[in-house]
Amino acid sequence: MFFRLLWIFFLYSFAGWVIETTVAIIKQKRFVNRGVLNGPLCTIYGVAAVVLSVTQRELLDNIPLLFVFSAIYATVIEWLAGYFLEKTNHGKWWDYSKIPLNLDGYICLPYSLLWGVLGVVAVKWINPFVYALYDWIPRPVTTVILWVLLGIFAVDALGTFYAIHHRKGISSRVVEANNRLAGFTRRFGNAIANLIQRRLTRAHPQIQERAVQGPPVVFAQGCSFYKISILFVVGSFLGDITETIFCRITAGVWMSRSSLVWGPFSVVWGLALAAGTLLMYSYRNRSDSFIFIFGTVIGGAYEYFCSVFTEICYGTVFWDYSQIPFNLGGRINLLYCFFWGIAAVIWLKVCYPLFSKWIEKIPIKPGKIITWVLVIFMAVNMVVSAAALARYSERAHGKPAENVIESILDERFDDERMQRIYPNAIQVK
């Protein structure tokens, strides 16, 4: 599965680079490298292709739903890419502000519809050919090719990151490898700028430089890393407590709703709160109806993705809405999507201002220490939980422990304990 997805990532990244470069040549009458990296790749296409290929397999026979979900996922990915590129590089890499029905110039309805069409074409008709090509090439050959491409991609990304941020300390070998890759791309496209920063400016003349803000005067000012990290932990805890109480009220039983082996934390809720705050922070002053629709669509897409992801990675289904009307494969249902929309309104309009004020009252130095302790704890907790779930699934399929780590996991997180932590987990073949 890993190599198949890597295959899709590189093929679609290259195809996206060709498309973007061709459009740029038509518009500007000359070649410009439209990729962020030195190599001939537009990674946003590769990421979108991987996400759609993984999440939309169940919708191949339902073209309307395949179109809708492809448009939603591709649009969210484009919004995230535009947002983070602007935040990290102090400029916009594309701007749809002049196109009707746009959102801050990052996304717009016409392109969202186009992404929906392209998603249908890619998932339903192009992917079978891509998979067939992968299966046709001898496995050792594809494995070597993909590892080489992955290594080149890592070097390229590292060199580009250092160049964009004007940082020193990168090894001469990485610089040399990036120069060679830039030279290949230049020959391949017949033109490329000498320096990465110049090339980026030429490729994206619409980049708008932003003033660099001074150091924060309060802890976790604005929508910072520290605030988002704390909100992730708080959201994970409150989400677990909420679901536990909800199960008690509706089902009459107390049961664990945690997604981690240590502590009452539901990562789905934590990620939703952190990512939702990050995504919707700029729109917190918009109307309730806008936030409700935004939250309904994004929340439904997020829950669907989490369901597919956990089933693929762990062979386990953690929730099933098959008995609830208007569900989609038991992964999401209309009623709970509306809950996501309502939660978004309540969070942004009522809860977030209070939590933000409380967090910003924490002294800067202790706040940073506390945040990093929580981040490290949650990271270790998630790694151990993922490993324990993987062994739980393997034991269910009769696979014995093959090393010391797996033996420890079997001893510390046996079936009884895992069933107590994940009472609703259903093993699938």
How would you characterize the overall build of this protein?
Helix content is 68%, strand content 3%. It has 429 residues and is mainly α. It folds into 2 domains: 2-203, no CATH class; 225-427, no CATH class. A hairpin with a 3-residue loop joins strand 4 and strand 5 (332-333).
Please outline what is shown here:
This protein is an all-alpha fold and 429 residues long. It is built from 14 helices and six strands.
Number of domains: 2
Which strand order spans the largest sheet, edge to edge or round the barrel? 1-2
Question: Which parts are unreliable, with pLDDT below 50 for 5 consecutive residues or more?
Answer: 186-200, 207-213
The string of secondary-structure elements, in order, is HHHEEHHHHHHHEEEHHHHE
Given the C-alpha coordinates, what overall shape results?
A: globular
* Fraction of residues in helix: 55-70%
Provide the gyration radius in Å: 23 Å
Q: Strand share of the residues? A: under 5%
Cα end-to-end separation: 15 Å
Oligomer: single chain
Largest sheet: 2 strands, antiparallel
Describe the structure using short key phrases.
6 strands, two-stranded antiparallel sheet, 429 residues, 3% strand, single chain, globular
Strand and helix layout:
Blueprint: H1 2-28, H2 43-55, H3 63-89, E1 102-103, E2 107-108, H4 109-136, H5 139-164, H6 172-189, H7 196-203, H8 225-251, H9 267-280, H10 288-314, E3 316-317, E4 327-328, E5 332-333, H11 334-360, H12 364-396, H13 404-412, H14 415-421, E6 426-427
Antiparallel strand pairs: 1-2, 3-6, 4-5
Helix pairs in contact: 1-2, 1-4, 1-5, 2-3, 3-4, 5-6, 8-9, 8-12, 9-10, 10-11
